[in-house]
Structure formats: structure tokens, C-alpha cells
């Protein structure tokens, strides 16, 4: 902590970590709210329609609160690109500024506009139009996630750029930027993880209702939705999303893979350390609790 770089890293890490708690939940909830609104639209009787609409209404309120917190905590992060990483912003601003601007101008406005209709328009528009507003919120939040991930993916695996005469980085292919292979798999991995987060929260509230003996019909609905959606998402998170992103790390960032595995020396058939504390001075892992050697 004796350098400006360490302070900047800690400052940015805290901002990003705290901010990400909110969009991680809202992006997952957006899909689950859409599912509840779809159930309401397809219900055969008025009682079932009202049941799913009330269930969706609860999560829309929770979504809105977390959406606001995500906006408030995300704005300082945008400024920190210019304060903490000014040199990087000067050099690569014409590239990373493209997806960040698209996220704000298109997907964020799409999400926030339809969120207003979703919150206040249920009794003013038809059921079909209200369902469409839930789809708009889902679409806006997931497109927003993609543009942000495109920015990070370019920093992990730069494509579609050239170095100008003044040494600044210029965008040469907008298509390559948006269709970066790293971004596609990172996006799949991230959004599936957000569904898991939303599913756990929904199922947890449902379990609380059932254990407390309150709102048991909604508790069963929440547990069923959370467990089914979460179980599917967990499988997809591992294969293919996690596997393919891990392959990209192996191919393009072998040093990162070594850090993830806790390896300080290159080795053939290296064992897997499940628990360990890295000692960077002695170049070894301390307090190793469990090893899983390869055959």
C-alpha cells in the first residue's frame, strides 16, 4: 500500500466489487420476472393470473431498488476510468468508449424506460403490453451486460484495433470488437451466473415463507422457480460456458491460469491445489490443506 498504483487498484476493486452486487442480481431477476409474467399471461383462470402477477410485482419492486443502487454505485466507476487509469483512458479511450457509450445510450435507456412502465403501468395497459414491458427490461439489462463485457473482453483479448502515429489505440473493426470470441463466452458465463444469483435469492425468500408458515402459495412458487432455474443454470455454467472460457484463459493467458492454479513453476502434469495461501516471496503455496494429484 506504499504506492499510488496499489491505492488505485484497491480503490477501483472496492468500487467494482460493491457495484457488481446489484447488476448481478438484477440481470438474473430480469429473466425470472419475465418467466413469472409469462406464467401470468398463460394462466387459464383469473386466480392463477393474479397469483403470478402478484409474485412478479414483489420482485419488480426488489429489482427497482437494486437497479437504482446499481446506477448510483456504477457512476463513480465510470469516473475512475479517467481518474485512476488516466493513461490507459487516453491511449484506449476511442476503443473502450464505443461499447460503454452504446451501453448508456441504448441498453440502459431501454431498460430504464420499460422499467417505469413495468412499475407504474400494470393497471394502465393491457396484460400483453405489460408482459412486453417485462421483456423490454430483460432485453435492456442483458444487452447492457453484453456491452460492458465487450469492454472487459477487449482488455483481456484485444482485437480489431491498430496503433496510430501518436501511439494511441484506434478501433479498426467494430465488428471484431463486438464479436470478440472472448466476449461471447465470457458473456454466456456471466449471464448464466447472474441467473444463479437471482434463482438463489428467489428460492431463499420462498424457503423463508414456507418455514415461517406465511404466504405459502407464493413460497412454493418461488422455491419451485428458483430451484428449477438455478439447477439448469448451474449445469450450463460449468459446460459449456465455464469450460470454454477456461480454454480461452489457457490459450491466451497462461500466466493467469498459473495464478489461478497456484503454480509458481512450469510443470508437466502439475497437481491441483484446492486450498493454499500463496507466498510470492518464497514462490510457494503455504498452508496447503488438500491436494488432488493427477494420475
Secondary structure topology:
Blueprint: H1 4-42, H2 46-83, H3 86-120, H4 127-156, E1 161-163, E2 169-171, H5 174-178, H6 181-212, H7 216-252, H8 254-261, E3 272-279, E4 284-292
Antiparallel strand pairs: 1-2, 3-4
Helix pairs in contact: 1-2, 1-4, 1-6, 2-3, 3-4, 4-6, 6-7
Q: Give the integer mean of the pLDDT values.
A: 93
Spatial strand order of the main sheet: 1-2
Please report the number of helical segments.
8
The biggest beta sheet is recorded as: 2 strands, antiparallel
Q: Segments where pLDDT lies below 50 for 5+ residues?
A: none
- Counting DSSP E segments of at least 2 residues, the number of strands comes to 4
The portion of residues assigned to helices is: over 70%
Strand content: 5-15%
Class per helix and strand makeup: mainly alpha
Radius of gyration: 22 Å
Shape: globular
Give the end-to-end Cα distance, rounded to a whole number of Å: 42 Å
SSE string, helices as H and strands as E: HHHHEEHHHHEE
Structure write-up:
This protein is mainly α and 295 residues long. The protein has helices spanning 4-42, 46-83, 86-120, 127-156, 174-178, 181-212, 216-252, 254-261; strands spanning 161-163, 169-171, 272-279, 284-292. The strands form two sheets. It has a two-stranded antiparallel ribbon. A hairpin with a 4-residue loop joins strand 3 (272-279) and strand 4 (284-292). Helix 2 (46-83) runs antiparallel to helix 3 (86-120) and helix 6 (181-212) packs antiparallel against helix 7 (216-252). The mean pLDDT is 93.
Amino acid at each position: 500500500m506504499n504506492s499510488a498504483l496499489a491505492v488505485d487498484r484497491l480503490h477501483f476493486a472496492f468500487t467494482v466489487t460493491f457495484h457488481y452486487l446489484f447488476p448481478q442480481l438484477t440481470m438474473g431477476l430480469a429473466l425470472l420476472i419475465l418467466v413469472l409474467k409469462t406464467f401470468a399471461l398463460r394462466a387459464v383462470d383469473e386466480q392463477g393470473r393474479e397469483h403470478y402477477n402478484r409474485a412478479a410485482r414483489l420482485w419488480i419492486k426488489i429489482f427497482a431498488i437494486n437497479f437504482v443502487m446499481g446506477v448510483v454505485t456504477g457512476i463513480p466507476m465510470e469516473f475512475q476510468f479517467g481518474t485512476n487509469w488516466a493513461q490507459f483512458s487516453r491511449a484506449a479511450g476511442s476503443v473502450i468508449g464505443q461499447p460503454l457509450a452504446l451501453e448508456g445510450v441504448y441498453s440502459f435507456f431501454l431498460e430504464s424506460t420499460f422499467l417505469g412502465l413495468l412499475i407504474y403501468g400494470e393497471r394502465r395497459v393491457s396484460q400483453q403490453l405489460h408482459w412486453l414491458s417485462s421483456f423490454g427490461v430483460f432485453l435492456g439489462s442483458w444487452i447492457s451486460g453484453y456491452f460492458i463485457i465487450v469492454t472487459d473482453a477487449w482488455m483481456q483479448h484485444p482485437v480489431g484495433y491498430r496503433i496510430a502515429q501518436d501511439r494511441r489505440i484506434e478501433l479498426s473493426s467494430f465488428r471484431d470488437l463486438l464479436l470478440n470470441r472472448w466476449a461471447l463466452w465470457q458473456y454466456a458465463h456471466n449471464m448464466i451466473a447472474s441467473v444463479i444469483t437471482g434463482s438463489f435469492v428467489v428460492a431463499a425468500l420462498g424457503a423463508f415463507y414456507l418455514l415461517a408458515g406465511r404466504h405459502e402459495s407464493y413460497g412454493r412458487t418461488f422455491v419451485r422457480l428458483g430451484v428449477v432455474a438455478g439447477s439448469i443454470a448451474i449445469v450450463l455454467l460449468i459446460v459449456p460456458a465455464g469450460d470454454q472460457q477456461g480454454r480461452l484463459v489457457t490459450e491466451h493467458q497462461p500466466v493467469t491460469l498459473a495464478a489461478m492454479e497456484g503454480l509458481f513453476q512450469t510443470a508437466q502434469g502439475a497437481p491441483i491445489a484446492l486450498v493454499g495461501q500463496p507466498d510470492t516471496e518464497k514462490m510457494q503455496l503455504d498452508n496447503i490443506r488438500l491436494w488432488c494429484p493427477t494420475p
